[in-house]
Design a protein that fits this description.
six-stranded mixed beta sheet; 33% helix
């Protein structure tokens, strides 16, 4: 079991917590981490782009001029791709970009991402993140005390005061432990997580 320091919102060490090595101390599998990021981004694509091919553009049924004798190149339709207002060659159509990933692969990728933060000393455990009011300046001070820049803040339950206090801070995002993912972990430099959220992740995957 890896032992990590626990801090309060003033940045003072108030204790320690033992983390499960099967989740926070695994060998990093870069291959699956990359696959998880690609899957996350691909599944986030709407895939609704669409353009008309020459067969779908209205008009163009009549030959613009006769085949021979005009001095122009032969043309069969004013809706050919080379014409203004014509169709698009290989026009994009709505499609499904989703990629599937095995459940176990997702878990290994998540464990690898979490372990990388622990190994890099970017895994900051806080005993409690309760705020009395919505105050961005107060939350900026908390992050400064924890020496956390470009941070992903993870809580066990939805905390409106934390969410509202942090949403205007650049490069800072909040997420619940139940929806934590590889992409968000790697996107941020530091991972600020409450003690109960870290233990909640262990309960889910232990």
């Amino acid at each position: 079991m890896a032992t990590v320091a626990v801090y309060n919102i003033e940045g003072k060490e108030v204790g320690t917590v033992e983390l499960n090595d099967n989740i926070y101390g695994v060998e990093i599998n870069e291959n699956l981490v990359h696959k998880a990021v690609v899957t996350y981004l691909a599944n986030g694509r709407q895939g609704t782009q669409s353009a008309k091919t020459r067969s779908e553009v209205s008009g163009g049924g009549r030959k613009p001029w006769r085949q021979k004798g005009t001095g122009h190149a032969r043309q069969g339709s004013t809706r050919s791709p080379q014409w203004t207002g014509g169709g698009v060659v290989f026009a994009p159509k709505p499609r499904d970009y989703s990629v599937k990933m095995n459940k176990r692969e997702k878990q290994i990728a998540l464990f690898s991402a979490l372990s990388s933060k622990v190994q890099d000393s970017k895994f900051i455990v806080v005993d409690d993140l309760t705020l009395d009011e919505v105050k961005t300046a107060k939350f900026v001070e908390v992050l400064k005390n924890l020496k956390a820049n470009k941070a992903l803040v993870v809580t066990k339950d939805k905390n409106e005061n934390v969410i509202l206090s942090s949403r205007n801070i650049p490069n800072v995002d909040t997420i619940m432990s139940s929806t934590i993912n590889v992409y968000d972990i790697l996107k941020h430099d530091s991972l600020v997580i409450t003690k109960d959220a870290a233990l909640a992740i262990e309960e889910v995957y232990a």
